Queue: 3 jobs
Job 1
Amino acid sequence: MLAYIARRIVYVIPIVISVALVCFLLVHITPGDPLVAVLPADASQELAAQLRAAYGFDRPLPVQFGLWLLRALHGDLGNSIATGRPVLAEVMRAVANTVTLAIAAAIIGFTMGILLGLIAGYFRETWIDKVATSFAIAGVSVPHYWLGMVLVIIFSVQLNWLPAVGAGPNGSNSWAWDWAHMKYLVLPAITTSVIPMGIVTRTVRALTGDILSQDFVEALRAKGLHETGVFRHVIKNAAPTALAVMGLQLGYMLGGSILIETVFSWPGSGFLLNSAIFQRDLPLLQGTILILALFFVFLNLLVDIAQAAIDPRIKRG
Amino acid sequence: MLIKTTTRAALIAALALTTAAAWPHVASAETVLRIGMTAADIPRTLGQPDQGFEGNRFTGLTMYDALTGWDLSSADKASTVIPGLATEWKVDDADKTKWTFKLRPGVTFHDGSPFNADAVVWNVDKVLKQDAPQFDASQVGVTASRMPTLASARKIDDMTVELTTKEPDSFLPINLTNLFMASPAKWQHFYEKAEGADAKAKSQAAWTAFAKDAAGTGPWKMASFTPRERLELVKNASYWDKARVPKVDKMVLVPMPEANARTAALLSGQVDWVEAPAPDALPELKQRGFKLYANEQPHVWPWQFSRIEGSPWNDIRVRKAANLCVDREGLRDGLLAGLMVPATGTFEPGHPWRGKPTFEIKYDKAAAQKLMQEAGFGPSKKLTVKIQTSASGSGQMQPLPMNEYLQQALAECYFDVKLDVIEWNTLFTNWRRGAKDPSANGSNATNVTYAAMDPFFALVRFLQSSMAPPVSNNWGFINNPKFDELVKKARQTFDPAARDAALAELHAASVDDAAFLYVAHDVGPRAISPKVTGVVQPKSWFIDFSLVSMQ
């Protein structure tokens, strides 16, 4: 197992460097001026050159990339052009908010998805299956920003039960797991959860149905195993695939959703990415993409390791 | 009976006690004004805000003052420059590059340190003197271009300072509204505590710390700051201008870039005030009793014509025809639901820089068609023009539907308008590079909105031939000796009334020349809870939050 983990970690290194290179190049080759956030349109050539030199944008691209990577390896992603604040602190704060949202959404989405999937798979081709599947299809089909707005209209504007935007009450500078804060989480978490809920439902339904139709299940029943015991075997067989799907979904959620976070003004990584793109804040954009890519890569790594731990056939392969 | 009397006495006593206990609470209840901004982040708080004039509105003019300020007290008159931290100023009679500013006595920064000539010099150096410890490159961009001729500052005595410009420039007092005075003592405190490999790193760390705990001289003091989430300001009870001591105890600023989210937050009572509500929600907002405010802003939504060789706009008949072919009232009442003011130039009647143009910009399709026919065009020979615009962007209002409206309108005057829609920052970058640059994609006009607060921003950068790219925003390479002469005259006229007259002459000349296709002025719409009173929305990008009360 240790050899497997070491091998997987080694595979991650070139991926991370490639991700860093791609995100660095992407933001440099797109049209527009990297100093647009601080340089007014009527800035003189002299002022533009002065600021370009101050931010190091006058150097050749390979040099810029080398310096950026070197600093990144030391945990320094530079400062945001627009705000002057350290990029790492900006990104980590946003990621913390997105993680909070992702955890809440995962709890809702995965619980609902597993439950609906199991029920639908067990009662395949019945009306119960049809109802559960309808939920799953709706989850992946409904545009989530639209759902977010509908929820806001109902629960914030009409009923006035929950806040429409933000991530905490006035005077609060950090997140806390109390109702004063959590009420800000309810609507964005439900909105974020619908896609993973739909995908997990469909996956678990298919897996459950497939496993239940296999010969070994008949054999277990023939041996007189109680239906609960049979179901335990079904869950155990479905778990590795379901876990991989949930891992991927969690990865997507940890990346943040620009649309959902913008609709709810939730100050997470999607919201940050949106600001960075619109302000063309290159250090912030690069830092955010890099951190999110790293999250995704390491989350995949963890899922792979978890899968291998559950199913020994994987590490042999 | 005794029991009854005792019970009544006890009730009265309890009521009295309850009332007495409640009274001080009611009397001291804190009033909080919560505002949803359109910005995606709190504009920078360290003295020179980013995010354009929304930044100045929320974190500039609230926490800071400049040597000169804007009169924001009237909704009817154009906002003009008034004394701020300087009480008076004059240019040197012998050397017109030197200005003396008398400073306001008795002003202190929020940290208690005094405002004086040293503070002014320190604040000028923070953006102009590269070897000054407090020099901050990140503040230069949003400052230097707004006062392009300012060269240096020198203390004469504690309450007098001399500012020097690179060339004689009567616009300086107007430009100085953008240079906000931060507390040198507070910054020095952070500098001394900062860790860093060298002075530059320490300086950067000091500015970062200052941004979290800023001190200016303005009517609002920073209370708490959560980046990208909220900024809480409390009233500065000892503000030097007693008439502008805030009436509200606290103001909370929340970034909400999405119009529907802002509107929902207002409707659900989460905020009391939103900038630019979603246009389609206006009827519901009105129906629910929210107050809508809008007023003409110094802002122009134009087509800026290319005047390079071969451009179809080089024929003044074509420029005039375009200006006469647009039904601006129709655009206002239909597409924009009343949220614009038809533009008949950069400045409208009543503004001191309006002047008396002889070419009247209005909707006159017959006259437009006649001009186009004189220029050689007609129903069977249309003039093809290509316009570069963006799908969104700061101040762009609704660029695509508005340009499509113009496309349809101009088609009736024998124009065939092709739209080249590009990303906002790319459009903005091309604005600097000009019509000759390949990034213009061969466009004959560009559609970038502009602020018209000061003469340089409003007129000079577009009309003076030496402001052609890459120097500034004369995108279309206008080269008109009359404009150059009038710019020089305005810059070198130091009596404010005479300077205004010279600017009016320049503006009238630009309208008579149909220098742009003038379409609209934005109106800065905002929706506000009926609990908020005393709101005066001036003809400005800015607004005075000090006047606002909460019921």
Job 2
Amino acid sequence: MATITPDTQIDIGHNDDPSSNYLTSSRGFLSWAFTLDHKRIGVMYLVGIFSSFFLGGIMALLLRLHLFMPNGLFPEWLVNNDTYNQLFTLHGAIMTFLFIIPSVPAALGNFVLPLMVGAKDVAFPRMNLASFHLWVLGGIFFLIALVTTRLDTGWTFYTPYSIQTSTNVIAATIGAFILGFSSIFTGLNFIVTVNTMRPPGMTWFKMPLFMWATYATAIIQILATPVLGITLLLLMAERILQIGIFNPALGGDPILFQHFFWFYSHPAVYIMILPAMGIISELMSVYSRKPIFGYTFIAYSSIAIALLGFLVWGHHMFVSGQSPMTAVIFSGLTFSVSIPSAIKVFNWLATMYKGNINLATPMCYALSFIFLFSIGGLTGLFLGALATDIHLHDTYFVVAHFHYVMMGGTVIAFVGGLYHWWPKMFGVMYNEMFGRLFCLVVFIGFNLTFLPQFIMGSRGMPRRYATYVPEYQIFHQLSTIGAIVLGLGMVGAVTVLIVSLFKGRKAPANPWGAATLEWTCTSPPPYYNFEHAPAVGSPYDFSDLKYDPQVGGFVKDPEAANKPKTDSHH
Amino acid sequence: MLSILADASSSMFFPPERSTFAGDVDRLFDFIYYLSAFFFVAIVAVMVYFVLRYHRRKGHVETPSASHNEVLEITWSVIPSILVGFIFFYGFTKYLDMREAPENAYEIQVIAKQWSWQFIYPNGADSDELHIPVGQPVRFVLQSSDVLHSFYVPAFRIKMDCVPQRYTSTWVIANETTGEGIEKDAHEPYDLFCAEYCGKDHSRMLAKVYVHEQSDFDLWLEGAANYLEGIPPEEGGEKAFKKKGCTQCHSVEGDNSAKYAGPALNGQWGTERNVIPRGASSPEAVVMDENYIRESVREPNAKVVVGRKPVMPVFTPQLLKDNEINAIIAYLKSLK
């Protein structure tokens, strides 16, 4: 089998000027829209997913404001039960399909992964571009659903309601179907890139853990996403042709839909959280200046999570009427996933031991992640246990739990990773003080939003309610205030980055003293990433990196390189 | 919030325990809660300590230490495994108790529909609010007449989905009455929610649960079964008309707009109307009389009024008894 090497790629718009980089090597809209450069595709994804995040975030704020009063804050003509249902549906669908699934793999992963292997691009640059174009197309279908008759099924499209509702289920499912292909293309590209393009010397157990995490993610993307695609096709067929697969009135089975749907959508949770864990592994190590503790356990735990994640989908259906035996089996399997996640948390903590901890903004996000993800993970125990799940299922306890995992976990890690790689991506340093300040605002706002939801959920407040009985009002009000703070924090965090594009000082090649290969090229990287193929070392050996005040960043210390190593990676 | 914490019958995390399951569920919850709190505090404490102890400052450098330690790592994999094994075991044994109702349980049929609840009792009585006797196993047989719903009573800690074309069930023993007598004002009923999203008025699909002493319950049940007795038929018909949800789709004030899915019913008695018989393509005229009303209730799509969609649900004898139809006919006759 022919190996794909970076040299086989076609040179488009290459500029021989040594001062040029991938941002300036060619200009104009078309040079971006049809670029084959993984870095530009990553940046375009970044713009795309942040637009989606903004849209989904506005909807979240509207929802929360509406819930400030038991019968709704907004007048009927503005937000009634119908509009509320559409808002939470599109909030969920946009955040899941358009933002969080592509966030780390497609935006950050695309940019970082080829640099980490010291290559010029991913294995299939054209497929990479196609993945982005499909994402845009899928997003357009969501916008069609949004501006036409909207969508009110919940992001889960549960039958038979999704077959009966008059809203635009077809547009939204076509959108999600196309986005599935986008996700598969990204996953396929990563698997082939990691398998075939690692440089000599980078064995599996010398890969940075971010690569392990994205590799594990890619396996799920390829195996699980087709199931969603087929399910959505069946749903469309059901709506158009009335063939009775899921519609009980025609002899179909609505529980079957739930099995199909969660067979994708539970592993999708790991598509979201695994790469985030990969980011945290990098951050904890770099900012503590310590080799990651228990590398092998972390690497294997990623694969374990990816595989076990396929076996637990039934825990979404404990009260659906499935047999008690099925419920017991799924409950047991569910707990098995908690162990590799716990292992990772302990390893990250141990990494800080005896380190030299730099509380830069990305590290603040990483610490915030450990706090929030621990809450998210531990509250999963209440939901995995059958007796307590019966009471908590479909209440705000679940809403709070998955927001702690998805947002407190993935989004926080994503923003931390973005801050970490930002100097590499755009060649500028941001304002540390404001970076840390808004990290704190996000942290406070987040907890104020979602902690009260655990309490109201365990007190019985069901989810997806446009109106509610007054006894839950205080919790909703705290949560709404928290959401406003969280929103401001997020806007602030993004503003710090955008301001740095115009006012930030020039970034050195290696501002943080990281040992992975992406930090050996200039910031921002040249069009072809590296002048010379970088030499592969241990990704977590910082002993020969020394801060140089003149450069404003870390450089190889020739003396340290000759000294005998007291601390090796293995 | 303080008033909630001060309420001695409930904890911060829970509504009052009002079923025999509730105590078990809450104890398991508390166990997981304290265990999680312990691990969470430990994780955050270690994290904060390390940050304070090892943060970057002048003259501070990192010190080499082991990059892995198999004994430590296996320990912190095995201990959590044992603990979650414990949680799993308690979770599923209590759950099995909650799934299997005793054989002598009193059985109530629950029909969920967009967007109301209907409870049908063994003597044929029915109600839109749930009434049960205290201290007695009560089994709920759940059905849905349209989409998915979920039957949820937080005070009992029970929840089960209602799936169209399928029966599911759950059961409970209530351990305290909500009040004395059969007058509603003397009770403080529990909330009954729909927990599975079911469309527009999902959040308004609420009902109340009344728990009675057995003797009060029997009294209530008899009254509910015979609610048409002792009152004039028109008055009984009006009660039945409202109770069965007819007012959601039929105006009795002449409003024929699209706001109501069905035609207005006042002043129509004995007049002709254009209908499309099932399977026919051209309309024909029928007189609105006793037979037409009865047919329209039992087989709504047999003759649909021109310009209306065939959306009326079927009212089986279980849902609407013959004497109720008779009363409704008397009521419709009286409407001007």
Job 3
Amino acid sequence: MKPVLLSGDEAVARGAFEAGCAVAAAYPGTPSTEILENLARYENVWCQWGSNEKVALEIALGASIGGARALAAMKHVGLNVAADPLLSMGYAGVNGGLVVVSADDPGCHSSQNEQDNRLYAPLAKVAMVEPSDSEECRTYIRAAFDLSEAFDTPVLFRMTTRVCHSKSLVVPGVPRDPAMKPYVRNTGKFALLPTVARVRHRLVEEKLLALEEYANTSPLNRIEWGASREVGIITSGIAYQHAREVFGDGASYLKLGLTFPLPSKLIRTFARSVSRLYVIEEGEPYLETKVRLLGFDCIGKELVPLCGELDAGILRAAFLPQPSPAGQKEDAPALPVAPPRPPVLCAGCPHRGFYAALGRRKKSVVGVGDIGCYGLGVNPPLEGFDYSICMGSSFSSAIGFSRALAQRGDARKVFAILGDSTFFHSGIPGLVDAVHLGANVCCCILDNRITAMTGHQETPGTARDLMGNEVVPVDVVALVKATGLPEERIRVVDPLDLAATGAAMDEAIAAQGPFVIVSRRPCVLLKDVAKSFEGQWCEVDQELCRQCRQCLKIGCPAIASKEGRIVIDDPVLCTGCGLCMQVCPFGAIRKGGSAR
Amino acid sequence: MSGREERNILLVGVGGQGTILTSKILSQGLVDLGYDVKMSEIHGMAQRGGSVSTQIKYGRKIYAPNIGPGEADLLVAFEKAEALRWFPWLRKGGILVLDPREIYPVPVLTGEATYPENVVESLSAVVENLRVIEAAKVANELGSPRSQNMVLLGALVSLLGLEGAAWKDLVARFVPPKARDVNLLAFERGAALAMR
Ligand code: SF4
Ligand code: SF4
Ligand code: SF4
């Protein structure tokens, strides 16, 4: 077939399809989201979102036990949520091949940390494979399924942002027949009671020794001898591409694709054949630790940064010091500084209404945030919450936070904020405990009907699934009621109705103990929603405007102060949501006609 | 590929301006011309309005997908202040294509930051090869503000001397059918502007 340009995520989907993967599940998370979105377009693969990463992996592992080839995909922090099933599946092994994709985010392009999930492989005692470009994504994922079945192990398929989101040429292959493995009841393997687990642990250790033997000769691990053996570089993943770019054909490379268990013999052979040994890897000194354990001195993390994303320039500066090539004309004058341009809530975003109402009650509330678009509400001018840690942590951590505030005599009410997708992901247990323990917390569910931040994926509250089938939308309010919280402590509001949202907040502040506000309005970027806004905008009446700047405090990108006037000068950007109208004390903002 | 083995192009702008679509068309054209191509984009935030960049490298054989500071042969800024932000990525002697349109970021809207003045003048004192292409203005004249990106695509195809590919077919293939004609027009206008 003709080569095509695919991103790493698209190539993983292609490769999984070619490998005969029959079941795939994921929770959306940058940079992994596009894997399932693309895989769902192929025939004969049942692809679904799980309500969180643990559920997604468990859907896949069940399918594997049942005899199907199965895949689960998630971002790096998602693997923390799914670590429980991963570590036990290491003991149980598989029936149909099982591949778990972890998409790490060095540089924190859109994450709360930059953990290196290669470290999970030795902990979980599962094989690990790392691709370095899109074609390797396709071929290695096929190899990963074969490896999984040949060695009876789940395979951790570790990618990073630059592999996931870079496009390079891929030559599509012929799909394999999706042959199912027979299913035979086998409690001695899959029912992990203590008696079984003890036996399985021994078997896993033996399996890892066999895998290491194999790793020494696997085509996924290769030596590329260069023009000289003066410099030898051990590397894996995207770091290989950066190293090749910088050191070219002059150096020799041990390029590792099967990175757990690491091939001791192969590393020894390579290390002995070169005069100077470099280990070039992004993140933790994972390869370097092994090389040192094998007794070889090398240069690694003393020159290659531990923090942040790697690039060729960083390697060049570290290994081949020379003046930076940046800059233009000699003695050039200093340039003006570019203003910061942080991502912001879209014009017309429903979350803005919620934060506008909350902002007017700043003296009596403290906000606790979570992961999603609404997380942008932490920035000025909204400043809607004080901290956010990880998916689903707002409700649960607010229980402890409110306790600490009460202890210090701080009477402010804690408003814990998360979205509908996060609520389904891991917010529900926090809500259950807040109600059950009588915490003095207002749990706010910002229900915009979709997982917006990662690009609009279905949630359990959506009436459609990833494959486009009609499904039962799970009712957020009914779930809240099912905790037993009395109805007078539950409010459902339209966040673009500032008065109604504020009134519900006042009730929550007045009430001692748990309270729930469901702030409900769909994301404006949803196609049908965007359509309903077409031709609508607001405009400022310059006669009435008194320059009080209240309207600028909601941080809408469509309203601005330009040349001394407050203007809404882009009717395409403005959705006419009317929020600025509601905050203007002088009635200076009105709806524009639909005839401009 | 005169002398050097590869070319690095960096497209920068504000989320929603269509930098990603532009890079998709450009990379496909480069593949059709027989180059090895890598394109890297960082996305993930659905919202509009943040600073965005996409990076394209092409040549005989490309390894690293991303472009570091001082490595871009061509920097295309879809917005004026973004040209300033990404200027350090331009290599010595590289070309800066700049659309002087202004999009105020929220910190400027709320008065916490100010939008820089004399951007084009300051950059022209520093950059050897500066090309100002008023793409947004042209797109507005065509009655289609969103086709700013195709004006810029036309300009950079002609600046890079890549006329060999079937660019118009690609534009037609990648843009929504109802916006096809105006985008083709935008592409032509951009190519003509760059030739001057
Ligand atoms: S994508 Fe939707 S939810 Fe996210 S900021 Fe934009 S409008 Fe709001
Ligand atoms: S109506 Fe006001 S708040 Fe709503 S999008 Fe337009 S400018 Fe922004
Ligand atoms: S809130 Fe009303 S009066 Fe005040 S600056 Fe804005 S438009 Fe003018």
